[in-house]
Amino acid sequence: MMEAIGIPQTECFQGAIKFARSEGLIPAPEPTHAIAAAIREALHCKETGESKVILMAMCGHGHFDLPSYDKFLRGDLVDLSFSEERIQASLSKIPKIVS
């Protein structure tokens, strides 16, 4: 079973830094979301004492994304957040496709 969740990009990069320091690989930005989610789940299990297998996907490397890591480490990377109202207003502008 899976559940879709949203994770702020700064938390994703924090997870990527932990991953790089422990595994010796710099992940591309895309799998940092999975890394952050796996860390969240592992910490939850640690708090509750639950034992489970946590599977995450890792693809690519971050060598071409080092400017993003630099931005994060300098504190210049910010999380974006939009209100439900703004999201719905944007979605209402998507044309309906009728087949």
Run of helices and strands: HHHH
What distance lies between the first and last C-alpha atoms, to the nearest angstrom?
32 Å
- Give the proportion of residues in helices: 40-55%
What would you report as the Rg, rounded to the nearest angstrom? 17 Å
Q: Report the β-strand fraction as a percent range.
A: under 5%
Number of separate strands: 0
Class computed from helices, strands and strand pairing: mainly alpha
What kind of sheet is the major sheet? none
Number of helices: 4
Organism: Saponaria officinalis
Protein name: Tryptophan synthase beta chain
InterPro entries: Trp_synth_beta/beta-like, TrpB-like_PALP_sf
Cofactor: pyridoxal 5'-phosphate
Concise structural overview:
The protein has 99 residues and is mostly helical.
Report on this model:
- By secondary structure, the chain is mainly alpha-helical.
- The protein has helices at residues 9-23, 32-48, 66-73, 84-91.
